[in-house]
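From the shared-data thread, chain only:
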Amino acid sequence: MKLTMRPYCGEDDYWRIRDFLREVFLLNDRREWSWQACRFDYCRRHVYENVQHLRMEDTVYIWETRGGRIGAALTPEGRGDISLQVHPGFGTPSLLYEMLAVAEERLARPGPGGSRKLEVWAHEHDTMRHDVLAHRGYTRGEVPEYQRRRPLHMPIPDAPVAPGYTIRALGDVDEHPARSWVSWKAFHPDEPDDRYEGWEWYRNVQRAPLYRRDLDLVAVAPDGEFASFCTVWFDDVTRTGTFEPVGTAPAHQRRGLSKAVMCEGLRRLVRLGATMAYVGSYSPVAHAAYASVGFTEYDVSEPWEWLGEARVEG
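Structure, as tokens:
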């Protein structure tokens, strides 16, 4: 069936892509060979609106049938960082070539020497995508994503909370500054604090459709400071929960706090009826930490890199 490409154009497309992602995720037996809806939500509200200040109308593209059924979508996680979402019934080399051509022409970021650069993700066993990428001059990059999962019928580990600390859900807006600050400390440990840009970004995160404050968990230190956190996204359509992000401030590390907040998140997912949980990891430390919570099954998504010649104007 012929698919026609067009740019994303408004809120109706946002909801249609979310439905498409859920459909594909379920068809793929809930393996993350395509994005989950929560990743699309988080990309929009945080990566686009808070970090890179991009419009989806300028970066997201849809391939659909004459009747309006979506067969594929190009969903960058920022300019130059490309993910291809493809329905298994439409996955052909010709479609992949077309999607890559659009990404190369419209979404590359500046590379060395005036070149244009793309990073496109492909799962380690997706030989069709590997062949197409290699034919177009892409080379396999470094630092893959380990897409970890664990069934929720498995026992949840015993993870006692360190003495003096408590775990609870995030409070109202007056706790946004503290939640933002612990995130800054966890993810920017080597940067000077004068580069901290404030807490207003967190309101955007809470606008995501699957956000639930009862699944936005924090570990609170004896002095009331936020020490560790995880946000869990529960999708009742796919009966899954995804942890994104997870972190602990350097001053509170090596106390088992990340494990404790994640185990509390798992218990809450079980009570909501979820049957599978997910988290992504990129480093040996993160691999080991998440495996200790039962995330021992995984798929590997690899970055493939492309350098194109600079455009000649005129």
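The mean pLDDT is 96.
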